[in-house]
Amino acid sequence: MRIHTRFIPLLGLVLLLGPLSCEVSSTPTLPLPPPSALTSAPDGTGLVTLSISAVAPGAFVSAFNLDTMSGVIGVADDAGTLSLQIPASIGDTIEIWQRVGTRSGEPVDLVVPPM
How far apart are CA 105 and CA 113, in angstroms? Predict the structure, then answer.
C-alpha cells in the first residue's frame, strides 16, 4: 500500500495522540457509598417508613424486603434525602441501595425493630 506524502504528518499526529485519547477515557469512577437509613416499626397497616439520607441528589433509591421479596423505588431530592414506605414485619431485613446512571452503590441492610 502506498501512502501519499501529504498524509504523513497527519498519520504521525494520529499515532502520537492516539494513546492519549485512550488514556483519558479510562479513568476510574468512585463507587457510590451506601445510604444512611433509619426504619420505623410497622404501623397499623403493616408499613414501615424508611428515612433515607446521604445519597446523591436525584439518585434512584431501592428498598427491598428480603423476607417478603417485595420492594419499592424512589428518587432522592436535591438534598439527597427521601422517605419510602414498604410492607414489613418486625424482624424483616430490608436492603437499601442507590443507583445513579449505570452505577449502583453498596447496599445497607436494616432490620425492622419492634414497636
Answer: 24
Q: Is 12 helix (H, G, I), strand (E, B) or coil?
A: helix
Domain architecture of the chain: domains with CATH: 36-111 (2.60.40.10)
Q: Mean pLDDT over residues 93-97, rounded?
A: 98
Question: How far is 33 from 81, CA to CA, in rounded Å?
Answer: 14
Among 51, 71, 72, 61, CA closest to 106:
61
Distance CA 51, CA 26 (A): 36
User: Would you say the C-alpha torsion 67, 49, 81, 73 has a positive or negative sign?
Assistant: positive
Euclidean distance between the first and final Cα of the chain, in Å?
81
- Report d(CA 39, CA 46) in Å as an integer: 13
Residue 75 confidence class, pLDDT cut points 50, 70, 90: very high
